[in-house]
Amino acid sequence: MSVPLLKIGVVLSTMAMITNWMSQTLPSLVGLNTNKLSVASGGTADRSTGVLPANPEESWQVYSSAQDTEGRCVCTVVAPQQSMCSRDARTKQLRQLLEKVQNMTQSIQVLDQRTQRDLQYVERMEVQLKGLETKFKQVEENHKQNIARQYKAIKAKMEELRPLIPVLEEYKADAKLVLRFKEELQNLTSVLNELQEEIGAYDYEELQNRVSNLEERLRACMQKLACGKLTGISDPITIKTSGSRFGSWMTDPLAPEDDTRVWYMDGYHNNRFVREYKSIYDFMNSDNFTSHRLPHPWSGTGQVVYNGSIYFNKFQSHTIIKFDFKTSVISKSRQLDYAGYNNMYHYSWGGHSDIDLMVDEGGLWAVYATNQNAGNIVISKLNPNTLQIVKSWTTNHPKRSAGEAFMICGTLYVTNGYSGGTKVYYAFSTNSSTYEYIDIPFQNKYSHISMLDYNPKDRALYAWNNGHQVLYNVTLFHVIRSEQEQ
């Protein structure tokens, strides 16, 4: 029995190695190994979206994801370049995959033939072992003394063979596993053939049209991602310490990428000089600037620079002025009817802050209060060219109780104060004409905020904090809605 036992041991060892190879290597060869899924690495960091793929032209990449409160998945996608969408390249890859699967199919057929042959041998041995066990039981029952010596020999041999029975059962299970692999490969080959036929049914132009359509949908999705709900404000970053206790500073959100000029206005009234720094670097490290003289002094700290012009509230009036920096002339002026001015409805810190001009992803806004709305905040969307009111919303929040305010994605966010501990606690959405009370911590590092504005290009809050020019990064939560939900 020594030779058959040795043969069984070799067969079992071979089967163990083959089974291990099939379970670990086969899924990765056919692209089914889910453990290989990983986040794209080697990219560049981005403050608003996380990590970009190192080679976005090679494949579709998911590089940002989150969940909303209802468990809906939120993600950002980068599409591959059109040059990679080649029917020939895809067909070549599919053909290589098919050849690889066909090679594996042939190998498994050979393995299956060997397994079946060895299995027949094992089954014959199993019958012999069971017959031997039956004879052994008969001898044990009779207890005949004349065959005691034979009984002992048979018992010893049976004890030697008994451990092989569970091993044989495991061998049969391995044979079934090989059969399952064979069936799965047949199914996979069939699917790949169907896919190849489907790809072959489309011409190149049709494929290009499908890709272009998908890219348009993705661009629309990315535009929706440009806006979101405020969920967090970072710790302050002090850019510079200069000027008086009150003032404003800003950059132009519509300026080209290479235009990083900074605009600086010290004080809240009876001043008409605006400083222009060539870059944020110059603003931080030097006093080199160009001075612009406005035709009228400004009121408050609610000025904005937008598309090359500065918009400000003329001192001691409810007039809004658009001043073009290139031509150094007033390109438009208009009265904001019924708006309080001259410290009638200021923010809680005072400073003639009756009319606050703001910019967000949607354009130009004016935030003020009127007698008609009992001193509560009014939000007006302005046409930046004509300064006419496009639409207005009335809120239930008293303007004098607000510390400061800013607009993000059509929502007005209001702080509960301007000194000491501060938070953003009130939000009014112009998209839904509804409000809610929120609780977003906001660090007031230098204890007196007299200007707070959002820049949609930087996705940052610009603040004037007791003679310090400060930046805050913001966290926006994005929700992608389908066309049916809009």
TrEMBL record:
Keyword Mitochondrion carried by entry: no
InterPro entries recorded: Noelin_dom, Olfac-like_dom, Olfactomedin-like_domain
Coiled coil: 94-142, 178-224
Stretch forming the signal peptide: 1-16
Pfam family, any one: OLF
Domain of life: Eukaryota
Subcellular location, record wording: Secreted; Synapse
Annotated protein name in UniProt: Noelin isoform X1
One GO CC term, this protein: extracellular space
Alphabetic keyword roster: Coiled coil, Disulfide bond, Glycoprotein, Secreted, Signal, Synapse
GO biological process, one term: signal transduction
Disulfide-linked positions: C227-C409
Location of the Olfactomedin-like domain: 226-478
